[in-house]
Specification:
Distance between the termini: 61 Å
Number of strands: 14
Strand order of the largest sheet: 4-3-5-1-6-9-2-10
Number of helices: 16
Strand content: 5-15%
Largest sheet: 8 strands, mixed
Structural class: alpha/beta
Length: 524
């Protein structure tokens, strides 16, 4: 086999994991011995930037190589539509493909599992037939109708509430061991001459935190998960205060969850080594986003684009990459191209076999394995990020987008109302956000709150905002963001502008589908 070619790719997302709680990034607590061992033979990236601060749009970018405003998957339209996925491409090229997760967003309903030969969400809130077939089509029709979008969002809210219930108390048993076992079985049973692609999402570090007792006693001894705040909206709405001791307990539970994931990750790593598959397997480990634990007076991963959320861990093992640390800028959507490159697959060579819509072609300027990585001047066709960098002469930038949330905003308003708190119209929860980030600076544009600029080289904690007029590096970053906004169709429109459409979005749904919606409580 060609030394630079892998037969297989294991792609692992550690959901909601911030990099400063991991051993490879200097964390003082030994949360990740397996990942630290892995880092000794992988490239560790210091400046890997997620395209959004939450699961759905980030995974959609990983699977398409597109920015969120291009693929359109967010809480307003929570599914991929008309986009050919990475798994579809690899399956068409002859690879066995599988996706196993414990994240309720990665389901047939959102279309994130499209193209995988096998998939399972061990945290699926509703049965698979509820989120597929005619009901899924009806849900998409409702959700695409602005007039009826509030009706549509009920299903998403139900999923979030069910997740919180299933992840706590008696339902808190981790799904991660089952995810790892299923992945091992898939790999063991793969018989493709080409190889396999396994995508895994491990969800334990997502709120609420109920780690297994073994790990809880190591990192949060004596802490009862039910005694600490497990609802970020209570804190972010102002309905609940958290003191320093409680923050320490919360962080301990979070570390325990990471420790548990690391142990399971080590289990599959060791198995790949023992079965002789390690050397021919490219391994990618990243987080989709991070988490805030009181920084900037916020909890969770909502309403902001601070570095604790978007500057994520990324480690990659491949023969073309040495065991080293890299400080250069990396975008997570580049992992789409990196995976294609590792397996020597280009959608452009597969023609019509990849689906109705053409997949994004493999681009060497966006592959971590290429000597042309981020040399965008050599790209035949440029995407919005490439255009924004090419049209300036002021360095390299990553770009982040955050459309107004649905679930988080609804729950925040509920918690505020219960506490007798009126949220102002300019509360940050109502803002859509976009950011440009270089290794030295960041600029965040918002549509309801003041923009924020930071010199990350001098102020990595983002505690002292700096305006473009006061700093040339921040000014250059703002201009890069403006170029990106122009490339994706302009700045955010009027946040109060709503287009009403009174057509019956369920006109094409049969009576059985309507009955199912009524049973679930989404129709009267």
């Amino acid at each position: 086999m060609d030394r630079t070619r892998s037969s297989n790719v294991l792609f692992v997302v550690l959901d909601t994991v911030r990099k400063d709680h991991l051993g490879p990034y200097g964390y003082e607590r030994e949360t990740t011995p397996a990942l630290s061992r892995f880092a000794e033979e992988a490239t560790v990236f210091e400046s890997a930037i997620a395209p959004a601060p939450w699961t759905l749009p980030v995974h959609a970018s990983l699977f398409t190589g597109l920015y969120p405003s291009q693929h359109g998957a967010d809480q307003g339209s929570p599914y991929l539509d008309g986009v050919t996925t990475l798994a579809t491409v690899l399956s068409s090229a002859g690879y066995d493909t599988a996706c196993y997760s414990s994240n309720a967003w990665i389901t047939p309903y959102t279309s994130l599992t499209d193209g995988f030969d096998d998939h399972d969400s061990f945290f699926e809130v509703l049965p698979r037939d509820v989120l597929s077939g005619p009901l899924a089509s009806a849900w998409q029709a409702v959700n695409d109708n602005d007039y009826l979008r509030e009706l549509a969002s009920k299903l998403v809210r139900l999923g979030a509430m069910a997740h919180a219930k299933l992840a706590s108390g008696e339902g808190a048993d981790s799904k991660t061991p089952s995810v790892i076992d299923r992945t091992k079985s898939f790999i063991d049973e793969s018989d493709s001459d080409a190889g396999w692609f396994a995508f895994v999402n491990l969800m334990d570090a997502h709120l609420p935190y109920y780690p297994p007792e073994e790990h809880r006693e190591r990192f949060a001894p004596g802490v009862d998960p039910d005694d600490v705040c497990q609802n970020s909206k209570e804190y972010n709405s102002g309905a609940r205060a958290i003191d320093d001791d409680e923050w320490e307990a919360i962080r301990g539970l979070y570390d325990a969850e990471i420790s548990h994931m690391d142990a399971e990750l080590g289990r599959i790593f060791d198995w790949l080594r023992e079965t002789g598959q390690w050397e021919e397997t490219t391994v990618i480990v990243c987080a989709d986003h991070g988490e805030l634990h009181g920084e900037h007076d916020l909890y969770g991963h909502e309403f902001a684009l601070y570095d604790q959320l978007i500057n994520v861990p990324l480690l990659v093992k491949h023969p073309e990459l040495g065991a080293e640390r890299r400080d250069d800028l990396v975008e997570l959507l580049d992992l789409y191209h990196t995976t294609l490159d590792a397996l020597h697959v280009d959608p452009a060579d597969l023609g019509e076999t990849t689906g109705d819509e053409a997949a994004v072609a493999r681009d060497p300027t966006r592959s971590l394995l290429s000597s042309d990585y981020r040399r965008f001047d050599g790209a035949a066709e440029t995407d919005p990020g490439q255009r924004a960098v090419l049209e300036g002469d002021d360095g390299d930038y990553a770009f982040v987008e955050y459309a107004q949330p649905v679930i988080e905003l609804h729950h925040l308003e509920e918690k505020a109302s219960e506490a007798g708190i009126d949220l102002s119209d300019d509360h940050r929860a109502y803002s859509r956000l976009r950011a440009a980030r270089s290794t030295d600076a960041k600029y965040v544009r918002a549509d309801r709150i003041p923009d924020e600029g930071y010199r990350l080289d001098d102020d990595p904690a983002e505690e002292s905002p700096v305006g473009p007029a006061d700093d040339e590096i921040v000014d250059a970053t703002e201009r890069a963001l403006a170029r990106f906004e122009e490339a994706v169709g302009g700045a955010w429109d009027d946040p109060d502008e709503r287009v009403a459409d009174d057509r019956d979005a369920l006109a094409d749904a049969d009576e059985e589908t309507r009955d199912r919606l009524r049973e679930l409580g989404y129709l009267e």
